[in-house]
């Protein structure tokens, strides 16, 4: 009788070794400069093993991004439990995004990956799913703020997109700033955004 459990365990170990070796390569060389050959040599596996687990380099990197995204969301869920209101959560989430950005070893590789021309609709859909989860977190915070009196913002859906764009934009444009400088910029941006949104909503609704 074939030991399917043992075979599955061996396959999972191979996959983990592949992902770990690839992660190191992407961090050192970036996405574009890391070749399939580099990955095979670093992981000490055959091309057949790689394609058994992933459809190619694109899907391998996407898997790593999804793993890291899952860890980030789990980290946020633990953090938010200790924050007393929506205002603290908004600042805390912005700070987490900045810390993730400044400490993330695959930031350059991720930027290259997003800039590349995706060859699969599946990749685009899975990347969109990541973006949607960030939208969901921001929506929860803004709606909670409307309920707990932290602010009174209309048209939450558009504000979700605007505020996330502000946070991402600050991290990209001022990536050479220290984490503390970024956090201070985000706090000021939040203040400007909240007060500006309230005033804009009043004008739009009048």
From TrEMBL:
Keywords attached to this entry: DNA-binding, Repressor
Under the heading PROSITE patterns, the entry gives: HTH_TETR_1, HTH_TETR_2
Listed transmembrane segments? none
Instruction: Tell me which InterPro entries the record gives.
Output: DNA-bd_HTH_TetR-type_CS, Homeodomain-like_sf, HTH-type_Tx_Regulator, HTH_TetR, Tet_transcr_reg_TetR-rel_C_sf, Tscrpt_reg_QacR_C
What GO terms describe the biological role, i.e. biological process, of this protein? negative regulation of DNA-templated transcription
Q: What is this protein called?
A: TetR family transcriptional regulator
List, in alphabetical order, the Gene Ontology terms for molecular function in this entry: DNA binding; DNA-binding transcription factor activity
> Which PANTHER family does the annotation name?
ACREF/ENVCD OPERON REPRESSOR-RELATED, ACREF_ENVCD OPERON REPRESSOR-RELATED
């Amino acid at each position: 009788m074939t030991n399917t459990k043992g075979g599955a365990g061996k396959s999972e170990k191979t996959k983990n070794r592949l992902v770990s070796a690839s992660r190191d390569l992407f961090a050192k060389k970036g996405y574009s400069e890391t070749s399939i050959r580099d990955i095979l040599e670093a992981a000490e596996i055959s091309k057949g093993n790689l394609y058994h687990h992933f459809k190619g380099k694109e899907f391998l990197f996407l898997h790593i991004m999804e793993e890291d995204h899952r860890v980030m969301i789990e980290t946020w869920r633990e953090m938010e439990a200790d924050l007393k209101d929506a205002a603290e959560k908004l600042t805390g989430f912005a700070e987490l995004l900045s810390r993730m950005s400044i400490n993330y070893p695959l930031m350059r590789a991720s930027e290259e990956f997003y800039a590349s021309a995706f060859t699969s609709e599946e990749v685009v859909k899975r990347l969109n799913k990541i973006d949607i989860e960030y939208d969901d977190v921001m929506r929860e915070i803004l709606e909670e703020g409307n309920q707990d009196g932290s602010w009174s913002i209309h048209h939450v859906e558009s504000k979700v997109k605007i505020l996330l764009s502000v946070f991402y934009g600050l991290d990209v444009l001022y990536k050479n700033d220290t984490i503390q400088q970024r956090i201070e910029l985000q706090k000021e941006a939040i203040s400007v955004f909240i007060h500006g949104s309230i005033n804009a909503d009043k004008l739009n609704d009048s």
